[in-house]
Amino acid sequence: MKKRTARQNLKLKGGLRSLKNGKRNEIYLVLDNIRSMYNVGAMFRTADGARVKKIYLCGITATPPRNKIFKTSLGAVEWVDWEYVSSAKLIVQNLKQKGIQIVCLEQTDESVDFKKANYKAPVAIVVGHELRGVSNDVLALCDLSVEIPMHGRANSLNVATATGIILFEILEKI
Fold first, then answer.
1. Distance (Å, rounded) from C-alpha 42 to C-alpha 173?
2. Within 13 A of 169's CA, how many CA atoms are on the CB side?
3. Is residue 37 assigned to a domain?
4. Contact at 8 Å (CB) between 125 and 105?
5. How crowded is the C-beta side of 81, counted as CA atoms within 13 Å?
6. Where residue 157 sits, what CATH number does that domain have?
7. What domain range is 103 assigned to?
8. Is 77 domain-assigned?
9. Does a structural domain hold residue 1?
10. Among 23, 75, 84, 135, which residue's beta carbon has the most beta carbons within 10 A?
């Protein structure tokens, strides 16, 4: 077995031009007050891998250009469309008006197992602050709340890790 180089992987995907101009999935990502630039960068990198259409950076969420974001994203900030919006509530309302399913990654009394959820494209995934989660005013607007079942002492995963799990589950279902 021999590992492929980055150049070989790129060639398999049709090259840079093909990737830059290629079709993106009807998935949006809303980051509601993410405080860690490393988490933001990791989510850019994962969003690129999942071909997310756009990321909305809201509230206190840091925006590029920042070295910590760029470093963690491995340059994905230049490949994924993004926009800063001061209020996650406003962007969620806007997306909802456009007929986009709003799915919140949050532990609530109505959350369903992320593997059993019924995702419909176009879909927006809302993820929240590392300690406080998704804000209540945004949570109230969501069509569905999903969670990743935890089997150990910890009640949750790192937000960037959880986002990756959800994004790739959605890719399997839409």
1. 23
2. 19
3. yes
4. yes
5. 14
6. 3.40.1280.10
7. 14-173
8. yes
9. no
10. 135
Q: Which 8-state DSSP code applies to residue 146?
A: E
Total tally of structural domains belonging to the chain: 1
pLDDT digits (tens, 9 = 90+) for 105-117: 999 999 999 999 9
Question: What are the structure tokens assigned to 140, written together?
Answer: 């109230």
**Interior/surface letters 77-86, b for 16+ CB within 10 angstroms, e for the rest:** bebbebeebe
Alpha helices in 67-115 (DSSP H): 67-73, 88-97
Work out the average pLDDT over 109-134.
Answer: 96
Longest CA–CA span in the chain (Å) reads 51
Q: Quote the Cα angle for 159-163-168, to 5°.
A: 160
> Model-level pTM greater than 0.90?
yes
Alpha-carbon span 159 to 156, nearest angstrom? 8
pLDDT at 160 over 90: yes
